[in-house]
Amino acid sequence: MKETLVILAAGMGSRYGGLKQIDGVGNHNEPIIEFTIFDAIRAGFKKVVLIIKREHQDAFENSLVKKVRPYIEVEYAFQEMTDIPDDVMIPLERVKPWGTTHALLACRNILKEDPFIVCNADDFYGKDAFEKVMKFFHEEGGINNYCMVGYKVENTLSDNGTVTRGVCRKDENGYLSAIKEVMNIKWNETHDGVLYEENGEYKELEMGTPVSMNFWGFKPSIIPMLHDIFRYELPVGIDKNPLKYEALLPTHVGLLVDRGQAKVKVLTSEDSWFGVTYKEDKPTVVAKIQSLKDNGTYPDILFEEK
Question: CA 205 from chain center: how many Å?
């Protein structure tokens, strides 16, 4: 198998205020994505596919890919607004990409027979997540058996604003039974509880609730199923408004689980997640990255020049 890492890196970074996917957080200006690739290589992954905007290719090549290509095979895929079914009209006012499912479909011609991880460029997951998914790939059979790595909701919040998370439920065997994209999750005023917004009202979300941080272990069999969902939903959109439609990977995985078309094992990482949702999150991330270098989890230079 050529286990592959697929990184979703085509987001616009509207809340962050820039191209956060390659914004440096390490003492040598390494972005989070560089640590992700380093962890994947340590776990045995052999290929990386970067899903980006075409106009950002030079920036990724110069700041990241030149360093990592001597260590692992790298390929680009481009998320483009026009990459939709021929019979669907694109509203002239639409500028936002079609979402994470659409992003993954951008590499549908690259992912042939090998299992792959899908994850976000701007989230730090830790090496444990990669090792557990690699083990799953080698031990779990079934063409439509997938996995995800879940994190406790309280370990995924920002002190600088609300976040959106895929809130998960699992059955007695540890498989995903439901997942719901929940918006506006935040700490309560005393930082000892978690709140989420529903119908304009904030409610309590139980501490320890597992949430998806878009870290999935898939096999190529999921691609045609996701394509069918996207093709069906796109002309309708949200409230029949394709201007607002967003094809969200957690929502669509949940739909496949509901239909009995997929089984998703919920794995739990022992590492802490962190990320840069807002520009104000960066100093905290910089400090955490440096502490991981200081304690020997990562070397001072991730990719020595070859």
Answer: 22
